[in-house]
What does this fold into?
Amino acid sequence: MTKLKLLLIAFFSVTVVTIGAIVYIQHVNKTKQEAQTVETTEEKKAPDQTAERVVITEDDRNYNEALSALEMAGHKADPSIEKEVKEAFKVVIKECKRAKDLEFDYSIENHLIMAKRDMIVSFAVALQQNEYDVNVDDIEVYESKSPGVVQFIVKSTKKDADSIFWVGNYMTQEHQVSIERYYGGHVGKAFG
It folds into this structure.
């Protein structure tokens, strides 16, 4: 009886595998036929119809590099946190434009107590001496892997120049900005 059961199991197994293979082969053949039909249809299109080329600009490359530097680029921060970061940047931008001889007030009120000096100097040079501008509404804010920290991308623009994308952290409990690096553009004078 045991041999009979084994033979039946083997027979059913072979049958199931064979039926599965037949169904798979039919599916593959059907897919190939559909692909050939699509190719034939595309060949019959008028010759003046050409595919549009997608042009990747230097700004696109720099933005993608900045975005890839974030820990959780696919996860936007809560809108209330985003608003808070934008408000803090209004103060940071004002301080960077105000600072004479690149001497800053790294105070809690200016949201710069945790800022890296070289990055704030670079940001200020871009704004003051190289006449870049920042639209605070365009600041993007994302979650991070660290509690109490969100990450941002700040885009600074200038006519007829590549944009600069500033990436950094905003500490939500301390309400402080820390620019970590930048991508693209030309920061230029007084730094380097």
Observations:
- Helices lie at 2-43, 58-68, 79-98, 117-128.
- The chain has a mean pLDDT of 84.
